[in-house]
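quick q for whoever's on today - can somebody do inverse folding on this one?? i tried earlier but teh output was garbage lol. tokens:
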């Protein structure tokens, strides 16, 4: 079913499922405004008014800027670059061209770079200037309180104050529960802090205010499901995620939630079957596809099918890492190779490829979670110089550096040197705090696998001393 939407709606109102399209069509059927039949894209001068009608007015006189803002937001939520629109980067350029002083245009473009965690205002002068420019524009314009809170949240996040940034986004959602940008940014922020309960509840609080015909409604299912599974409500999480997939089969985040559920419930065969069956739907979501392939590879590792896991690394993860250089892809590549090596698999020169991507970020220190994965790459590639530079920075998570971040890094380095007893001594006291570094349960599980592996290696070494015959097993 193809519906060319009337121009009374912004881009995110172009709903993807058949049911949602029908609902949107009924909303617009009596509109007197023209339809862009050649592209299906909005061309009405009333795009600005549509945002106001949604209760989310944007402080700009440019309808084109509103459309491009909407295009960026939609692609962000869908984890997909729409190349017909020039992708997210193309739309960012377009929104700035349409209105260089559009505050929310600056908020979303600069905010996306910040939540990507691939750059720090301490080292990146361009990014620091972008944050400063956004704050300055907000200070001289008569913008709404909601927009002003967005600027505050973005600035706080840029300084590494994730908790206060999330507080600001949550304050927006109290008055504007359908502000998808505030919801998505807070979702990412809570994830980086491993604030699992808040991640779940932030979505649960706004869900009653959303209706099925509203733009991007179905994507809330995957977001809520992720919060549920991270707080160990696995059955409910799977149910909600599949509701999202029923509405939008190519929702990569809902598919990702189902993959998590199967991983955490040790349903390896179900997970393999699900990933194979749905690959055609989520593989086009280029921002998240690499991560979903990572989940797929984990199932193979758990079955001992290491060549299959390496095949996914070579054909998908490595390729996408080189193309994007994103921190999510860096984390996936590093942790997959690290887990394979813990299983005794020779990954050959693959570490060198990952290190080429991670080395420029060694001094960023945006999150401890990233730093630990950079350390994996430097240890794997035997690049000791890089390993020594991975010391904590000043952001929120690095306030925990002395008691958590540094000991974890030291434990990994001792393990790499074969000093298993020292590594266990460092890591064992942290076993209940590991989640504080951020990331999902599945992503930080490597630390527990590492501790088990170290204890096994230590036991085996001691046993061989007592009984040399064991050396031959």
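ok took a stab at it. sequence:
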């Amino acid at each position: 079913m193809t519906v060319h939407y009337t121009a009374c709606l912004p881009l995110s109102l172009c709903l993807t499922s058949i049911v949602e399209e029908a609902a949107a069509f009924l909303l617009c059927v009596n509109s007197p405004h023209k339809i862009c039949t050649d592209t299906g894209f909005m061309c009405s001068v009333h795009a600005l008014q549509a945002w106001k009608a949604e209760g989310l007015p944007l402080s700009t006189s440019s309808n084109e800027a509103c459309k491009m803002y909407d295009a960026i937001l939609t692609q962000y939520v869908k984890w997909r670059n729409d190349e017909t629109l020039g992708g997210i980067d193309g739309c960012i350029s377009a929104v700035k061209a349409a209105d260089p002083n559009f505050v929310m245009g600056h908020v979303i473009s600069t905010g996306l770079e910040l939540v990507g965690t691939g750059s720090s205002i301490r080292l990146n002068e361009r990014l620091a200037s972008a944050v400063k420019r956004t704050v300055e524009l907000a200070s001289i314009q008569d913008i709404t309180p909601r927009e002003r809170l967005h600027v505050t949240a973005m600035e706080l996040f840029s300084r590494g104050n994730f908790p206060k940034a999330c507080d600001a986004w949550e304050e927006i959602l109290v008055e504007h529960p359908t502000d998808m940008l505030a919801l998505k940014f807070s979702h990412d922020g809570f994830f980086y802090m491993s604030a699992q309960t808040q991640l779940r509840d932030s979505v649960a609080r706004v869900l009653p205010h959303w209706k099925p015909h509203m733009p991007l409604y179905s994507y809330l299912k995957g977001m809520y499901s992720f919060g549920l599974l991270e707080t160990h409500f696995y059955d409910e999480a799977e149910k909600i995620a599949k509701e999202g997939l029923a509405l939008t089969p190519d929702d990569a985040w809902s598919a990702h939630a189902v993959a998590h559920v199967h991983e955490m419930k040790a349903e390896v065969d179900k997970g393999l079957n699900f990933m194979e069956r749905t690959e055609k739907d989520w593989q086009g979501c280029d921002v998240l596809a690499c991560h979903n392939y990572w989940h797929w590879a984990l199932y193979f590792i758990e079955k001992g099918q290491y060549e299959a896991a390496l095949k996914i690394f070579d054909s998908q993860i490595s390729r996408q890492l080189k193309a994007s250089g994103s921190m999510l892809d860096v984390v996936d590549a590093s942790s997959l190779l690290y887990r394979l090596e813990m299983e005794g698999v020779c990954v050959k020169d693959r570490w060198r490829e990952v290190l080429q991507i991670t080395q420029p970020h060694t001094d960023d220190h945006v999150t401890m979670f990233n730093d630990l994965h950079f350390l994996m790459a430097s240890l794997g590639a035997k690049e000791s110089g890089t390993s020594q530079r991975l010391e904590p920075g000043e952001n929120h998570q690095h306030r925990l550096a002395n008691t958590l971040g540094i000991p974890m890094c030291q434990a990994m380095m001792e393990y790499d040197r074969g000093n298993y007893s020292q590594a266990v001594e460092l890591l064992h006291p942290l076993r209940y705090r590991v989640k504080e570094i951020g990331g999902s349960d599945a992503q930080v599980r490597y630390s527990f696998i590492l501790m088990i592996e170290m204890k096994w290696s230590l036991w085996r070494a001691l046993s061989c001393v007592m009984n040399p015959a064991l050396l031959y097993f």
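fwiw Confidence is low (pLDDT under 50) at residues 1-46, 390-394, 455-473. also The chain has 23 helices and no strands. so keep that in mind when u check it
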